[in-house]
Amino acid sequence: MNDSPERISLAGRIRNNFLTGLVICAPLAITTWLTFTFIDWADSWVTPYIPQRYDPQYYLNIAVPGMGLLIAVVFITIVGFLGKNLIGRSIVKFGESILHRMPLVRTVYRSLKQIFETVLKEQSTSFKKCGLIEFPSPGSWALVFISGDAQGEIAAKLNTQGEEMVGVFLPPTPVPTAGFLMFVPKSKIIMLDMTPEQGAKLLISGGLIAPDYKPPVVQPMALEPPVDPMPLNQP
């Protein structure tokens, strides 16, 4: 009977050590698997289109992971460089003019181009801030990502009350890949200091992983010295 507590204690230590190791190894293993899966996927798309005489793996006689991805990055960079000069812009406009004549293709191309331009624009404020809105009822607050001010027809129809409307993306927990796009008054949003990456961690973990927050230090107001009363003129 005296050995039972020791066996329970030993089992508890083994379980705690296993859980600790799982917390350390699982994210590392999943990240490694996702990284190599993406590299293999990129290689499978790019490598078949590389002429054999230009493929470094042909001369090395070994498969180099990531070679196709590296070539794709170099190719995309060169296309971007050429697209900035006059000749490159002319070629791009000519290609787009052909795509715009195709009924189905032009819709897909315009939508994808608008999405990439919005996401990759350097000065875009899309999904660079997080906030809180009352949802689904007053007194309940939900985390949202700020997508930007309302524009176009939506802004013209909603900004009739003289208050600026803001588009927000409300993702679900724990998979923030789908959600609701809503337009709410800017005054109804509580802006947060956390980054979108920290907000995504908070959502995925169901509120368990909250970012550290240090409230701003309020400097005390300096008190002005009392003003001496004007001395009375002596006779």
TrEMBL record:
Keywords: Membrane, Transmembrane, Transmembrane helix. InterPro entries: COV1-like. Coiled coil: none annotated. The chain crosses the membrane at residues 18-39, 59-83. It holds the Pfam family DUF502. This is DUF502 domain-containing protein. It comes from Pararhizobium antarcticum. The lineage of its organism: Bacteria, Pseudomonadati, Pseudomonadota, Alphaproteobacteria, Hyphomicrobiales.
